[in-house]
Amino acid sequence: MNNTLNRRNFLQLTASASGALVLGLHFQSCMPNEPAVNYPLLPLIEIDTEGWVTLIAKNPEIGQGIKTALPMILAEELGADWNKVKVVQGDYNKMYDEQWAGGSYAVILNWDMMRTAGAKVRSVLIDVAANRMQKPAVECKTQDGKVIHIETGNSIPFGELVAEASQMELPEEVTFKPSDANTIVGQSLPHVDSKEVVDGSAKFSIDIKLPGMVYATVAKNPVHEGSVESFDDTATRAMEGVVDVIALHNAEYGGRLLGPNSPNFVNGVAVIARTTWTAFKAAEKLNIKWDNSHSRNENTEDLLTRFREQLGDTTMVRKDGDFDTAKKNAATIFEQTYELPFLAHVTMEPMNCTVNFREDSCEVWAPTQNPEALEQGLIKLFGLKPEQIKIHLPRIGGGFGRRYYVDYAMDAAVLSKKMGKPVKLTWTREEDIKHDWYRPASVQKLTAAMDGNGKVVGWQHILANASRVTSLGREGDAAGTEIDEYEFPAGFVTDLQFEYGHVLSDVPLGQWRAVAQSANVFATQSFLNELAILNQKDPIDYFLDFVGPARMVPVVGDYEYDAGRLIAVVEQVRKNSSWDEPLPKGQGRGFAAAKNSGSFIAEVVTVEVTGDGDLKILRVDAVVDCGIVVNPSGAKAQVVGGILEGLCAALYGEITIRDGATEQSNFHDYPWMRMRETPEMHVEFIKNDLAPRGLGEPPLPPAAPALTNAIFDASGVRIRKLPIQNQLKKEFELNNKSIQST
């Protein structure tokens, strides 16, 4: 990964007509194995003569706080007065390299970029001010929007320096501020548009209104891989407020839009109306005959059976040492199987998009995590050139990976072009859930070979599922696997092997919050807990023994895993949760830990299970090492939100398939936790000066295994298949179990 940003391809300083200092940035690619690409420069920072600093937030804001965090980093290095900073959401532009939201990468990719930008502008401002004060530049600093001579305290505001500074050349090299000098980074600051979100004035995509706009929704075939055979729209057209009914045929646009494994984007029957509600109600009156001739007519239980069978027909993904020999020589062998369901995203803002398609241009207001994919879709669908497309990025009401895909936006674009006017398309909650890109279901089998002391000397992990990497793939093998060895440091065990079995399916699969890790960590952390109990050892002691001493553990290629950072969060959560103190009868604690997106996190969940199987989550303790915490309040919100979503999914999350269609349709049959169910939350961050890492996803994976491990500690009931819903009561009824004392 190359984060080097030099003057030639990064910054250009010019004076605007208003006398403002304008800083243009090019974001060099920071993804591995991608060559640097030079683009024309685009203004990103503006300092006006009044000293106001305007910063463009380039990445989509999906609730993760990046619209605040990135400007904080830049303003810190610049030495701006945060009270005189304005943040403006940027439109999509290829010159903002890596302009997407996903994988908890936004801070990781932009940390050095933002600091470098701020530091270079700071340098020229100091040079101008030092010259005016006739003091050496090394004796000056920037703070609160001024250049200050440290010894005398004399200062000059940024606004008085910009005209001259705009004529200065930027330095080739800069020195970043030491972290102990930070006054913005590390402070708990409200999101820049929190007030607007709270008072309802914030404009989400679903709030967009344009002159002459009409409203649309689409009825899609409930069966995955199904299409429209014919329809009768007589009753729909008879409704007051209905403007038109339009069939969307995927074949009309050359089949699948973005390759053989992309979804049936343009498919269904659209209703155009004067209001969204009218469109919704009118769509219910459509009489549609569906064509399901290409469907596999799958059912969940059949898929799970196929996954189980596929465990015996796998491909080796990784092999270190000799697991077979370790297994043969082991004193004890233990194996267990875990099953995880498909999961939906259920973002609070359903899929929607507004498009104004003119004769020679297309303007889009899209709640998308992936604007580049949207641009590419428009280019392929309509033959547009990039300069004919303008994509605005309003604030988004939740993403979690669902909005990495742009099928809903393609519907809107087709309809706007056909109507010749602006169209706002909104999917109903039912269409949203039934046509999601689901977190893959899986069956995972783990086997441990142990020596006479119960120490793991051999490890085998077999995973079978339909892979999201080949989502909707109807032929061939998966292009990748769901086994993420970054989450399981292979170096902890000398003799191990990872195996994968792929099953073809029609179910649309895709990104989800910590998509692979949300399943794999449940399996591995549940299994380690079972091994601890089998060997009559404390689960945290057993885990730390499994990890071994603090060291850098090789994982794959040049990548190494810092075991010391993992150990530190585990030891701290042990203290914070009072792990070693006894609990009343019927209560229990569960532990799990993992690494994701560069961050280390350990969690302890405390629960109470009654004699008839009622469950109450009492408390969650989490300790996180994510490097430097840019905005502690925003970071804590990410941790709490990730844990709660992990608990929600563990308790209730389950998408089931019957006859090729998703059975769930709304919150009545895809329930989510209510506020009354939320536990007491305690979050601590490990303080260090390491570069910040991701936080949107890392808190989620340990939540489910920590919860199920706590249930076992409280009740003796072992949960190996999610969701937990109703399982406790069934176990107590079937086995006549009583709550066991811890």
Characterization of this structure:
This protein is an alpha+beta fold and 742 residues long. It has 3 domains: 181 residues, Aldehyde oxidase/xanthine dehydrogenase, molybdopterin binding domain (Aldehyde Oxidoreductase, domain 4, 2-Layer Sandwich), CATH 3.30.365.10; 166 residues, 2-Layer Sandwich (Aldehyde Oxidoreductase, domain 4), CATH 3.30.365.10; 339 residues, 2-Layer Sandwich (Aldehyde Oxidoreductase, domain 4), CATH 3.30.365.10. The chain is 27% helix and 24% strand. The chain contains 18 helices and 30 strands. The strands form 8 sheets. Strands 11-12-9-19-16-17-18 form a 7-stranded mixed sheet. Strands 1-2-3-4-5 form a 5-stranded mixed sheet. Strand 23 and strand 24 form a beta hairpin. The longest helix has 28 residues. The chain is globular, with a radius of gyration of 28 Å.
